[in-house]
Amino acid sequence: MEKLLKLFLLVLTFSVPLFGLTYSDTKFNVIKFGAVGNGRTDDTNAFSRAWEATCKSSSTSSTMEVPSGKTFLINPLYLDGPCNNKIINVEINGNLIAPSEPSKWRCNNNACDNWMDFRYVDNLSIIGHGVINGRGSKWWSTMKALKISSSNNVTLSGLTFKDVPHMHVVLDTLSSVSVSNITIDSPGDSPNTDGIHIAGSTNVVLDHCRIGTGDDCISIVTGSSHLKISDIICGPGHGISIGSLGKHESHETVEYVEVSDVVFIGTMNGARIKTWQGGSGYARNMIFERIYSQEASKVINIDQFYCDHMECFTHESALKVSNITFRQILGTSSNQPAVNLACSASVPCTEIVLDSIFLQHNDNKRASVACNNAYGRAQGTMVPQIACLNQT
Ligand SMILES: *[C@@H]1O[C@H](CO)[C@@H](O)[C@H](O)[C@H]1NC(C)=O
Ligand SMILES: *[C@@H]1O[C@H](CO)[C@@H](O)[C@H](O)[C@H]1NC(C)=O
Ligand SMILES: *[C@@H]1O[C@H](CO)[C@@H](O)[C@H](O)[C@H]1NC(C)=O
Ligand SMILES: *[C@@H]1O[C@H](CO)[C@@H](O)[C@H](O)[C@H]1NC(C)=O
């Protein structure tokens, strides 16, 4: 009996560290690094120290914890990798607030572009039910709230963003990204506050988000491809936009974008592709389907004459827009035209497919359609009739 017990203890002492080697998740709570969380004390340095420990830890998986029930005042913060080939979790269950006044921002080397800036962190997961409040109403300007760049395998989920000074979430040069269950809640009159901005990123799945803001709910710009966006409620805001592309005669590309199951509520656009005159490149291979519009203004909008300042000149060159399907687009529009296919005069849009559209103008009036140099076909139920699309 005693022998057996000894053997058992021996097995136990050896197997525990063995289990420990195969998997360990070391946790780093910002409170242990000196964060106060009273909403007044500047907790930036404590967050930096907790991040440093999380990133440098030698365990297979490490977690930076921002505990719930507290509010942390944070100035611009870099969260840099690389973190030695392992899994990095950031659990934000507490709330984060920005300083109350523009003059109170403490910026790194005067670079006041991003509030929380994750760079070069592979296998990064940022989750939690925390609320991130940019207190931006005093200076809607240039500060993006959360930027994640130059990383592979990124997950973002659960968080709420409010009143940020500029874009809410920026995904830049990422691959294999999953964004879900994000709430964005900023006023409809807040300038340039894109909800989720995707640049140069591939293999992105974005779903189950509620986005209300003053600019695009989702914007997708050059270098992005293979995106699946679904189950989105957008409004107020400017809709889901590809672009703008081709500004300052640049060569830009976006392709393989699938957008489905979206509700637009009172937005300025629904599904939009916007390009500047004079650019080159393409926007192609996209599907927008199962979209419901409640008084969005231009529900379907290809605008190759995009110009957000007073003077824009006529150019011959343009991005090529091709293979774009709009399928099962229903609801009401507050604008005429509800469907706008304004393609470049010199470079026509081709393979534009409108399949099963039922759109009415608010007051039960017939919705109208405008086209310029658009080629493709209409099929299925078509209200209104899209007579101006050149058949191919
Ligand atoms: C995490 O990222 C690195 C690349 O930086 C990769 O080699 C590694 O296999 C990834 N996955 C895990 C589970 O650590
Ligand atoms: C991606 O990251 C998750 C953790 O967030 C990890 O479980 C998974 O193994 C990673 N995938 C790869 C291919 O490394
Ligand atoms: C979405 O996030 C909230 C916290 O913000 C959480 O309570 C909820 O369980 C999440 N839902 C899903 C389906 O993950
Ligand atoms: C058109 O775009 C869709 C959606 O991305 C894609 O599945 C399809 O292969 C494209 N067609 C051609 C001919 O490239």
TrEMBL record:
Q: Which GO terms describe its molecular function?
A: polygalacturonase activity
Please give the family membership noted in the entry.
Belongs to the glycosyl hydrolase 28 family.
Signal peptide stretch: 1-24
Provide the protein's localization: Secreted, Cell wall
Keyword Lipoprotein listed: no
Where is the catalytic site? Answer: 238
Keywords of the record? Cell wall, Cell wall biogenesis/degradation, Glycosidase, Hydrolase, Secreted, Signal
Q: Which InterPro entries match?
A: Glyco_hydro_28, PbH1, Pectin_lyas_fold, Pectin_lyase_fold/virulence
Q: Which GO terms describe its biological process?
A: carbohydrate metabolic process; cell wall organization
Source organism (scientific name)? Fraxinus pennsylvanica
Principal subcellular localization: secreted
Q: Does the keyword Plastid apply?
A: no
What the entry lists under Pfam families is as follows: Glyco_hydro_28
The protein's name is Polygalacturonase
